[in-house]
Amino acid sequence: DEGREEFRRGSAVDALTRAILDHLYFTQARPLTLATRNDWYMALAYAVRDRMLDDWLKSLSHLRNRELKIVSYLSAEFLMGPHLGNNLVNLGIMEPAREALAALGQDLDELLRQEEEPGLGNGGLGRLAACYLDSLATLRVPAIGYGIRYEFGIFDQEIRDGWQAEKTDKWLRLGNPWEICRPEITYEVKVGGHTERFTDEKGCVRVRWVPNKVVKGVAYDTPVAGYRSGVTDLLRLWKSEAVESFDFQAFNVGDYYRAVEAKIFSETISKVLYPNDEPEIGKALRLGQQYFFVSCSLQDMVRIHLLRENSLDTFAASFAVQLNDTHPSIAVAELMRLLVDEHQFEWDAAWQITRATLAYTNHTLLPEALEKWPLPLFASILPRHLEIIYEINRRFLDEVRLVHQGDDQLAARLSIIDENGERYVRMAHLASVGSHAINGVAALHTELLKQTVLKDFYEIHPELFRNVTNGVTPRRWMVLSNPGLTRLITERIGDGWVTNPDELRGLEPFVADQTFQSAWQKVKRENKSVLAGVIKARTGIVVDPASLFDVLVKRIHEYKRQHLKVLHIITLYNRIKHDPQADVTPRTFIFGGKAAPGYFMAKLIIKLVNSMGEVVNSDPDVADRLKVVFFPDFNVTNGQMVYPAADLSEQISTAGKEASGTGNMKFSLNGALTIGTLDGANVEIREEVGAENFFLFGLTAAEVSDLKSGGYDPRKWYGEKTELREAIDQIAGGLFSHGDRGLFQPLVEHLLNRDDYLLLADYQAYIDCQDRVSAAFRDRKRWTEMSILNVARMGKFSSDRAIREYCSDIWQASPLPQD
Ligand code: 26Q
User: What is the pLDDT of residues 58-109, one digit of tens each?
Assistant: First the structure.
């Protein structure tokens, strides 16, 4: 019997070989001779998943242990990336799996490429949630990530004629071996309708919500293994379905079409991820999605809590619920509704539980990115929640008025309801009022939060505010994606750094060591060669791995200033055109990132990069010294190839606009040097790695706001800077658009007349700083030292550090004791 168990659980090569063959036959139902690459991938994935089950089931059984607080991370997005490689790393079975497959004539790397990544997020916020789950499991904290099982994730990006084209992400097409459907874990979620008052058997007036629709959420569970921690946490995503009773009813009255319509509506809720990284006003389905997953998740927590205790009084001791931005902030009203309407709590007791349970993370200062819902729309979907919000607001503002007598302006500014013109529910206010802690995602961001969007909240309740600077997991972003560097580092200092990255400091004694330096350079060079091969295959462009790889990958946004980078490239191009012998440091410029499908300016920036690239790449005067690449479909999988191959990380947002950034950390951790503004976490990265190992340029956040309040005129800079003027004139004049002066006119017009993101004001500082970068890259030894020091000093930016801070400062959660 033990022999039978061994092939399901064991991590030796033989056991894995048998397990893979077993799944190929009994799960995939394929004879060896007919097995496709996907069959092999699936068989391997199931064999790996089997090896997660003992820890997972043990961890799940701890959810019933009332002593332990469970962290519940509510997020509309989880950008997990491919599971297979990560699980092999965290379980410690990468090499035996490779050998087992080799014995079966299969190549592990090929199977790793077979996995379709679950792209259930837009960018930073969704990827942060994924890094946090990795750290929670690694730190042995019992946790559940709750979200939506979108049938279609973020679109796949193709580039056609230089423009972005969106293709549906059919990630479930070939099946998903990592998830387990739990058809017995379902909840009903009401939508629309009206409320009624009635008197209960005790004579209390209560409220009944009579919806006009009911949908069902079904749980889909994915295990999240910690790095060799013995704990496997849970990602529970909700799929929406029709409730059986509904179509039955309609069918009985003969209204077949209405029944089908109701079913389609139900299934629409979890159909597709909104591909925008800021809200669009008035999208009812989006509010439906948010409420749907929040309601399922809170009902699930209530169920789990009631397995531990017989009263909800102690709910806040069972769960610490983190709101990943305002997207799940309806949780404030929903938890109140569950307690007051469904579990007969008094308002005050319910409110105390709600605030003790919830905490809110803010990820943006941009006013246009703050979520708000038009009142009529909100009322039509969530009539009961609107009443609850009014009551929360009434009590909150009464308190404010009591303490700050006579300041009516203050109450209006703090109100959850925006009453300046069209009325809206302000979700950041709802989240702030309903939480016991509010945090920003980098030191600068938190300071600005307190001075701007949440200023009034900070003034009345400074004790609620925390900073937790973001972090990234070194498991995916180093061990998995950069095995060469991982091996080199581990040879020198051991592998303790993987969970304790402060140990990377142990590399500092080797910075000047010749052999270490050459080994370091060799790793980077190999990573660049691999990326060069992929670039050739995907774009046809040939790039030289000896050139400086200058990389700008992130969502396309005006505030992130991809077009400032374009101005830099055109400037270098012009220098060559003016003097073809000019001594320029050869560079490969790599862009990547998706634009929201409805964001015209972002799509035009993609077109500009490609159009400008065509001209530069094909100009014989350039003689291959500059190469411009737009790497299509930037996602987690592609990021894993790009970050390890970068020499230079571009973090050039207008100061004060990027809340944190996390790509900045991934680059630096992989030995790229940063050119950046004092924005988001760049500030702290520079502090850690040392100012001499960081290329700083540009206005500070304070200077940006001063410049703007003094009446910024971009034309002044345009008039004064000749290289800048030349570049803009060329874009406007059609040099990059076959003479078409209309194509980029909107972009040029915006730069010259508004320039909201101060490209023109920062242009010269950026160019000058890039000249210093070019010079520095020529001193290979010095560059390598800086690269090593960046890695050695990145410990702070591990998501483990961030999660420890959340645990101690916000959640009061602790690790499971080692057994
Ligand atoms: C909201 C309503 C309706 C539709 C879409 C949205 C929506 C979706 C995604 C709004 C925002 C997002 C994503 C925001 C995001 O990724 N923000 C980034 O979060 C990172 C993690 O904290 C930071 O590092 C980045 O600075 C921040 O831009």
Answer: 999 999 988 899 999 999 999 999 999 999 999 999 999 999 999 999 999 9
CATH number, domain at 695?
3.40.50.2000
**The pLDDT of residue 701 is above 90:** yes
Ligand 1 pocket, Cβ-based, cut-off 6 angstroms: 122-125, 128, 274, 276-279, 286, 327, 363-364, 371, 441, 470, 658-662, 680
What does the pLDDT average to over 646-674?
98
In three-state form (DSSP H/G/I as H, E/B as E, the rest C), the secondary structure along 240-255 is: EEECHHHHHHHHHCCC
Domain containing 798 equals 543-803
Q: Based on the domain organization, do 106 and 140 belong to the same domain?
A: no
Q: What proportions of the chain, in percent to the nearest 5, are helix, strand and coil?
A: 55, 15, 30
The predicted pLDDT at position 253 comes to: 64
Percentage of the chain exceeding pLDDT 90: 95
- 571 vs 766: CA distance, rounded Å: 11
Looking at the domain assignment, is residue 816 inside a domain?
Answer: no
Q: Are residue 167 and residue 270 in the same domain, yes or no?
A: yes
Q: Which atom of ligand 1 is nearest to the CA of 286?
A: 3
pLDDT for res 48: 98
- Exposed/middle/buried for residue 389 (C-beta within 10 Å: 0-12, 13-18, 19+): buried
Cβ of 415: how many Cβ atoms within 10 Å? Answer: 18
Count structural domains, the chain.
3
CB-CB contact of 563 with 731 (8 Å): no
On whether the CB atoms of residues 582 and 572 are closer than 8 A, the answer is no
Distance 327 CA to ligand 1 centre (A): 10
Q: Which of 49, 216, 236, 363 is catalytic?
A: 363
pLDDT the model gives residue 6:
82
